[in-house]
What does this fold into?
Amino acid sequence: MQTDYFMLMGDSLNQWTTREGPPPEKRLRGISWQQRPVFVAAPIKLRTSTGGLPKEPFPAYEGSCEPLLSARAKSLLEPLAISHLQFLPADVSFENGEVKRLWWLHVYRSIHCVDRTRTKGLFASRREMMAIGKLVLDEQALADIPLERRLIFRLGELLDTILLHSSLVERLRSWEAEGFKFMRVDEWHHADFIEDYRGP
It folds into this structure.
């Protein structure tokens, strides 16, 4: 199971900043926006922090805040009808006045599946983490959930972390969509994390 999942990594351009959109701090009945559908009346407004245009082809994914998809990446993912995914319109403005329409991929399924005894990280509580140095998944927790319900999800203990099953990663790679970056969970580690820290 450790080799079945990949982390979705941000593009190295790292140049978008959110101007307005789904409120990351607003909670509905104690549930964060990352764990529920989000409805927007108008496209999310984003702007570049550098003012520069990336080289073409435009990246399919950029992960400085939430995943942003190109229209092509959206057209490939949407027919798969994966549950708990939304494609929210996002207009990105550049200093030269150009505006590009991208799609904010909102993943609102979360699963608590950290192997607490083997994961290196900073635990805020038994079900919440502040940082991860080395992630080990609880294989039984995942095995208890049908595969179609865990193809892509947020790590319940750290909602900013998005995991994808290898079958979905293989499909994305076969499309050769620019900008997608993945790293297998068992190969990922945070280089700056204190290696011997195991939490409270």
Remarks:
- The helical segments are 71-77, 139-143, 166-175.
- The two ends are 26 Å apart (CA to CA).
- Residues 20-28, 195-200 have pLDDT under 50 and may be disordered.
- The first strand starts at residue 5 and ends at 9.
